[in-house]
Design goal:
globular; 29% helix; alpha/beta; 579 residues; 6-stranded antiparallel beta sheet; binds alpha-D-glucopyranose; 8-stranded parallel beta sheet; disordered N terminus
């Protein structure tokens, strides 16, 4: 009996212990299945890093990969989920990295491939994803492909770029470079012109050539094999040009470069870009972990922007919304209209919002009024982080870094500023080194005896991470707490978006409702320099509750307010939880 009992017992206890050990195993499997299916980019916050300017680690005055690695814990603590790093590939640096001469390695001024691998490892161990920037439209004129292409009309790579004969002793047509003057440059050796949408040193690739496509897709595979979480696709609306070389139509007036204004009708947004987007998406989808594609999409309207998602949601997951970034004034009706267009356009996929980046003046300078800048910076943070979208931040935005433009032409580094001076001072102003500490002279960006590649803004003595970490009401701590809410409040993580008080000329308000019940969130942003009173009746939106608790506000944090009368200070912004 004993033996029988024992033999009978053993399988049972074995069964239970199996069950017990299987439970965590099953939970783990369920968790990893959920993680594998998770479209992480829908609830991530992306942080753009301009690598030259985040942190110098080797005393050359230029930020680098080891510098980024050093600052990963800061980014983790800030509360972002992914970093997009602008190009770090070998480059003559005419366009500070956007002129690439080798797509599959690292420029020595930023470090080595080993440094990159170590960065990936460290980022992943902190749960941070890394998004690379890939420049598909053009290479550097120093890329071996272009050198070959240029070497003779018969070179097998001749057709990798856009070569055409001139017309009437000049360029083939009137197409203009985005960075000024003709988009064609004559190569005296072969007697033909090559096309460049950007600088002379950035010849456009010929995307109608299948070998070019293959080469670029191989580049993307190379980085995806290394585990990157996706790509920001540079200037992709410009991949194709009209093959018949029609002249672009002129618009009234002249630009900062002294050229006639022109509409880039035949060199931008040609329908073939969508074939490429679909191919790239297929490639990205063939990798695990849902790599994401972000496109630089300065489209003229939200309807045009929506096309980037693809007719079957099979193109770009996150086209960057320049419409909202570029409102350039605090206007409740203007923001409301654009957000409405995003929400009510059936072709619009998941939105991606930002205000600053390495090509545009920092938001503080475009939206501040000089008097209430701190309130406005916090209001902008709420506008960026609380709607239904993936927000994209730009380094230094969280401490309110401002543009510091060069004062003299001889100090300008960005060629746009050299060609456009003084009307267009270029993009140096938004690319100045990150302000980490009050320490003079380099604010913790580089050792004190080093000359940074761009000057440290004078504001660094008081506006920096060190100072703001210690001030409970600082912009940095405001961002941190908003980012926490964004990740923990169901209404903000995955709730819908509903416009509130559509006729209010001053206060832009919206509601976020969680998908599975629970508390809703109301956001009210007073975009005027006057006090305003707002009230909310949320019955129509199926949200009950007369009182609301204040989750976050840029002027005072009370505990509870009456939804029938909420007083907002000038540029006051408030986030309320309705139970
Ligand atoms: C994109 C980049 C910009 C660069 C240009 C040419 O617009 O964001 O910095 O100069 O493409 O590559």
């Amino acid at each position: 009996m004993r033996i029988r009992f024992a033999t009978w017992c053993l399988p049972i206890s074995g069964f239970f212990s199996l069950l017990l050990s299987a439970q965590p195993l099953l939970a783990q499997q369920a968790q990893s299945a959920a993680a594998a299916n998770d479209l992480w980019w829908k609830h991530a916050v992306i942080y753009e890093i301009y690598p030259r300017s985040l942190q110098d680690s080797n005393n050359d005055g230029i930020g680098d990969i080891k510098g980024i690695a050093k600052r990963l814990p800061y980014l983790k603590d800030l509360g972002v989920d992914a970093i997009w790093i602008t190009p770090m590939y070998p480059s003559p640096q005419v366009d500070f990295g956007y002129d690439i001469s080798d797509y599959e390695t690292i420029d020595p001024q930023y470090g080595t491939m080993q440094d990159f691998d170590a960065l990936m490892k460290e980022a992943n161990s902190l749960g941070l994803r890394v998004i690379m920037d890939v420049v598909l439209n053009h290479t550097s004129d120093q890329h071996p492909w272009f050198k070959e292409s240029k070497s003779s009309r018969n070179n097998p790579k001749r057709d990798w770029y856009i070569w055409r004969d001139g017309k009437n002793g000049g360029p083939p047509n009137n197409w203009q470079s985005w960075f000024g003057h003709s988009a064609w440059t004559l190569d005296p050796t072969t007697g033909q012109y090559y096309y460049h949408y950007f600088y002379v040193q950035q010849p456009d690739l010929n995307w109608r050539n299948p070998e070019v496509r293959k080469a670029m897709y191989d580049v993307m595979r190379f980085w995806l094999d290394k585990g990157v979480a996706g790509f920001r696709l540079d200037a992709v609306s410009r991949l194709f040009e009209d093959p018949t070389l029609h002249d672009d139509p002129y618009l009234p007036g002249y630009n900062a470069f002294g050229d006639r204004n022109i509409k880039h009708k035949y060199t931008d947004d040609l329908p073939e870009i969508h074939d490429v987007f679909r191919e790239i998406r297929k490639l990205a989808d063939s990798y695990p972990g849902h790599p994401v594609l972000l496109s630089e999409a300065d489209e003229p309207t939200i309807a045009e922007l929506s096309k980037m998602y693809g007719a079957h949601d099979d193109e770009i997951q996150l086209p960057m919304d320049f419409q909202i970034a570029d409102v350039n004034e605090l206007s409740a009706p203007k923001f409301r209209k654009l957000f409405e267009e995003v929400e009510n356009n059936p072709a619009h996929g998941w939105p991606e919002f930002f205000f600053s980046n390495h090509d545009q003046q920092r938001q503080w300078d475009r939206y501040g009024d000089g008097k209430h800048n701190d309130q406005i910076a916090k209001l902008m943070a709420m506008l960026e982080l609380l709607p239904r979208a993936t927000p994209q931040m730009y380094y230094g935005e969280e401490i309110g870094m401002r543009n510091t433009d060069p004062q003299r032409k001889e100090d300008v580094r960005d060629p746009v500023g050299i060609t456009g001076w003084p009307k267009d001072k270029g993009r140096d102003g938004e690319r100045t080194p990150m302000q980490w500490t009050s320490a003079a002279p380099n604010a913790g960006f580089a050792a004190p005896d080093v000359k940074p590649w761009l000057p440290i803004p004078p504001s660094a003595r008081t506006v920096n991470v060190e100072v703001q970490s210690g001030e409970s009401q600082s912009l940095l701590n405001f961002y941190k707490s908003l980012l926490k809410f964004r990740h923990s409040e169901p209404a903000l993580v995955s709730g819908d978006y509903v416009t509130l008080n559509p006729d209010d000329p001053h206060v832009f308000s919206f509601l976020r409702r969680p998908p599975a019940g629970g508390r809703s969130v109301v956001v009210a942003l007073n975009m005027s320099d006057q006090k305003q009173t707002v009230k909310f009746d949320l019955k129509k939106q199926n949200v009950q509750g007369k009182n609301a608790s204040v989750l976050q506000s840029n002027f005072e944090t009370g505990t509870s307010v009456d939804l029938g009368a909420i007083a907002l200070a000038p540029f006051g912004a408030i986030m309320l939880a309705i139970e």
